[in-house]
């Protein structure tokens, strides 16, 4: 079974949604993944400057086949999520596919995240995993 290297972009202002997404992925049988996300205790947070932090995030993204972004409306106003989209689209020799995940029960979502996405999915483990498998073959 293939292990999927994933970078899950998220806002620390909404870490609950990130935690729920990780739980959703963990609950899926016959699905293996490695999480390259930046955790709260990751020393990347102490990078010092925006350029050092950008380079550190790019190193985290590099081995990943797919970038997952929670498409809550907050993502529209997060400078780091916007930077991560730019990195995924132009920071590598090959563009990284982005999966935008619309949060469960959300009425409003981020237009910039959905426009950058290779695929937009609803908050459902089957649709998320199917998109990952389709885009990371």
Describe what is shown at a glance.
With 137 residues, the chain is α/β, with parallel strands linked by helices. The chain has helices at residues 15-27, 50-61, 79-90, 111-116, 125-135, and strands at 3-9, 32-35, 66-70, 98-101, 119-121.
What is the string of helix and strand elements? EHEHEHEHEH
Question: Within the largest sheet, what's the order of strands?
Answer: 2-1-3-4-5
Largest sheet: 5 strands, parallel
Low-confidence stretches: none
Helix content: 25-40%
Distance between the first and last residues' Cα: 12 Å
- Any idea what the radius of gyration is? 14 Å
Structural class given helices, strands, pairing?
alpha/beta
Q: Which shape, going by the Cα principal axes?
A: globular
Strand content: 15-25%
| Arithmetic mean of pLDDT | 83
Question: What does the model show?
Answer:
By secondary structure, the protein is of the alpha/beta class. The protein has 5 helices and 5 strands, in the order E-H-E-H-E-H-E-H-E-H. It has a 5-stranded parallel β-sheet, sandwiched between helices. Helix 2 (about 50-60) packs across helix 3 (about 80-90). The longest helix has 13 residues, at about 15-25. The radius of gyration is 14 Å and the shape is globular. It starts with a strand and ends with a helix. The mean pLDDT is about 85.
């Amino acid at each position: 079974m293939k292990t999927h290297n994933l970078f899950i972009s998220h806002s620390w202002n909404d870490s609950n949604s990130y935690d729920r997404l990780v739980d959703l992925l963990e609950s899926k049988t016959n699905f293996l993944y490695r999480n390259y996300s930046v955790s709260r205790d990751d020393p990347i947070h102490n990078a010092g400057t925006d350029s050092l932090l950008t380079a550190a995030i790019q190193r985290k993204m590099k081995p990943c086949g797919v970038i997952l972004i929670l498409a809550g409306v907050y993502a529209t106003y997060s400078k780091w999520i916007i930077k991560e989209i730019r990195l995924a689209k132009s920071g590598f020799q090959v563009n990284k596919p982005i999966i935008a995940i619309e949060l469960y029960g959300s009425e409003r979502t981020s237009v910039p995240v959905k426009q950058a996405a290779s695929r937009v999915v609803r908050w459902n483990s089957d649709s998320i995993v199917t998109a990952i498998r389709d885009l990371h073959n």
